[in-house]
Structure formats: structure tokens, C-alpha cells
Amino acid sequence: MINFGFRRSKSLAVDLGNTTTMVGDEENVLLCQPSCIVFNASNNSVKAVGSKAYEMFEKTHDDLKPVKPLRGGVIADYYSASRLIHELVHRCCSVSWFGGFDTIVTGVPYHTTEVERRALRDAMDQFTARRHYLIYEPVAAALGLGLDIQSPEGKLVLDIGGGITEIVVISLSGVAAFQSLKVAGDAFDTAIQDHFRRHYNMAIGMKTAEQVKIQVGSVVPDPDDEPAPMLVRGKDLITGIPMIRKIDHREVCEILEKSITSLEHSIVQTLETCPPELAADIYETGLYVTGGGAMLRGLKKRLESRIKLKVHIDKDAMYAVTRGISKVLKEHRKYGSVLFE
Ligand SMILES: Nc1ncnc2c1ncn2[C@@H]1O[C@H](COP(=O)(O)OP(=O)(O)OP(=O)(O)O)[C@@H](O)[C@H]1O
Ligand SMILES: [Mg+2]
Fold it and tell me: Where does residue 203 rank: exposed (0-12), middle (13-18), buried (19+ CB within 10 A)?
């Protein structure tokens, strides 16, 4: 994960994600770390955050308490989320800024309740800022993708994150239609774990499942860049003895089939609920895919063959939301209308 260094301005862009937390300023992404924290169980002090905490996950003992504070794209453990964001902002901002930030803008999924948004606002209130705003993540992602969100032309954006996938149609700086589902990176990893358990009586960790998805994952059986098969290490569920098994991209493609099909259904449903004039625009502009899940091998090929739209995959998929928020900070007069309190 990347730690880009100290920021120079007094405004912050924050994307507190299910899997990854990003902090940026008006110009750059300053920090990108896993949304993980490990506490000492005895006194609840912080043992590790970010990459270090991620390394410890699934390897801890009773004296350590590992927490992933976000679930489904929202805060599930308020205390841990507050500590995590505190530690990460400290890492990339000079202590002198803590007296008072100018503006902090934080991304929030579109499909959230007022209670979930309040938890996020409260967690960010620990940083004294003159102004604190929220922005819907798919809108920020569209800006980060370089789309003209203010024009009346409809734009279809698919953000596949770790805990949540959101599909939105954006026009005139607002959301005209949307679908939100909990089928995202974590669900893909769970499907891989379940497959090993059911077919090979083999237990594998979440981190190994994620590695399988990234290394040999594919959503088409014949991707352009066919990966070499991978050796997966785990534990025999019957004997308890460590074991190893080879898996290739065709097998992962079958495992991910159900999840990808439900994403496709949701894309179609979004188009069904969207006004016909916007749907006509999307026929021309196509589908923009971002979020870490956009990097799934063969996704462009698969979606183009199923939903018959041109598909654009973001090359810097994990950074789109933060890039978009940075743009709003820099050009707040132009994009201020997309912010809310
Ligand atoms: N090359 C890759 N192929 C497939 N998936 C990937 C790849 N790289 C990262 N991912 C997955 O992307 C997900 C993280 O994406 P992202 O950082 O956009 O999520 P997030 O913003 O933290 O989550 P959310 O938006 O749900 O809050 C993880 O599930 C990760 O395993
Ligand atoms: Mg996200």
C-alpha cells in the first residue's frame, strides 16, 4: 500500500472504504492503506493500523483484537473506525494542522441511512474543521473518472468496492437512478472460501481467498491475459493437516459466476428504472466501471457481451473517489452543489 507523504494544504479528501482508506488533498492522494486496525485486548490501545494490521489479520492470538471497522461500505464499529481514521490522518498530516483544518470532504455510499451518515460525520468531527461535508461516493467516482457530471447527458457508473457495489445514473450533478448491493470484493472472497470448503474439504483464510481472486481470478473462461494456475495453501477440514491445491482461472470463473450475474441483473434494473432520455444517452456513452473490483480479469469482455454496452474500465480504479473529492476541493465553486452536510 502507498503512503505518499505529508500534505501541503489544510483541506482533506477522505474515502473511508470497506477495504481501503484513502486520504488526499486538493492535488494528490497522500495515503492508501487497508481499513484494518489491531488493538491490544488488555487495554484497548492501538497495536497496529493499515498494512501492518492487515498483515496481522487471521494470525493474532487472544491478547490482540483485530477489527475491520466497516461493513457493507458503512461504519459497523464506531470506536474502531474513529481510531483508524485518527491514526491514518496523523500519518499523512503534520501535527500542526490538527489545530484546525479548513475543509474536510468524506465520501459516503449513495444508499445509506441518516444514522449511518451521522456515524461517519461524528467520526470525522474529531478533526476540528471549519467545514465538513459529505459527498456520495459514486458521484465523486464519476468526477474522478473525468466525467462531466453537470451536463444533462446520462452517465452510468458502476463502483465495485470491497463491501458494496453501487450502480448509478448521473445527470445534472445528481443521481437519477441507482441500485446498491452487497455483492462486492468481500463476497467474491467468501465465494472462493466456500468453494474450497465444499469441494475440497479445505479451509482457507480470507487473505488467501483474496489472493486467489487477484492472482487467478477471471470472469470469462478465456481472458486475453491468461494467468498461470496458483498453488493454494490451507488446512484439511477432516484431518486438520496443512494441505495444498492448484486452482486455475477457469475454476475461479465458475466460482464468481453467481456474483457477476447478480451484478449484471442490477445494471439492467438500474437502466429499467432510469428515464428513457437518459437511457438513450447511455446507449452512446456506455458503462464506466471503477472501484477495486473493476480490476477483475476479463470484466470488460464479460460485461460487453452480456449488457451490450460499451464498457470503460478505470485504469486507476481504486483512486477514483479520492481523485473526485480532490477535484471538488480544488474547484469548490464549480462543484460545491454535490456536497452536503
Ligand atoms: N486486481 C484485482 N482484481 C480483483 N479485485 C481486486 C483487485 N485489486 C483489488 N481488488 C479488490 O477490490 C476491493 C477493494 O476495492 P476498493 O478499494 O474500491 O473498496 P473500498 O472502497 O474499500 O470498499 P467500499 O467502496 O465497499 O467501501 C477488495 O475486495 C480487493 O480485493
Ligand atoms: Mg469505495
Answer: middle
Q: How would residue 251 be classed by pLDDT, with cut points 50, 70 and 90?
A: very high
**Residues 6-61: pLDDT tens digits?**
444 589 999 999 999 999 999 999 999 999 999 999 999 999 999 999 999 999 89
Residue 231: beta bridge partners? 246
Separation of CA 244 and ligand 2 centre (Å): 33
If phi > 0 it is left, if psi is from -120 to 50 it is alpha, else beta; for residue 298 that is left
- For residue 102, the model assigns a pLDDT of 87
Domains for the chain: give ranges and CATH numbers.
Answer: 12-141+320-338 (3.30.420.40), 150-183+256-317 (3.30.420.40), 186-255 (3.90.640.10)
Q: Which atom of ligand 1 is nearest to the CA of 317?
A: 18
**Rounded distance, CA 62 to CA 64, Å?**
5
Q: What separation in Å is there between the alpha carbon of 243 and the centre of ligand 1?
A: 28
pLDDT digits (tens, 9 = 90+) for 190-225: 999 999 999 999 999 999 999 999 999 999 999 999
Tell me the CA–centroid distance for residue 302 and ligand 2, in Å. 22
Ligand nearest to C-alpha 316: 1
Q: Which three cell numbers stand for residue 91?
A: 500519518
Residues near ligand 1 with C-beta < 6 Å? 17-20, 73, 161-164, 184-186, 210, 213-214, 217, 291-293, 295-296, 318
Query: What are the tens digits of pLDDT across the range 96-106?
Result: 666 678 899 99
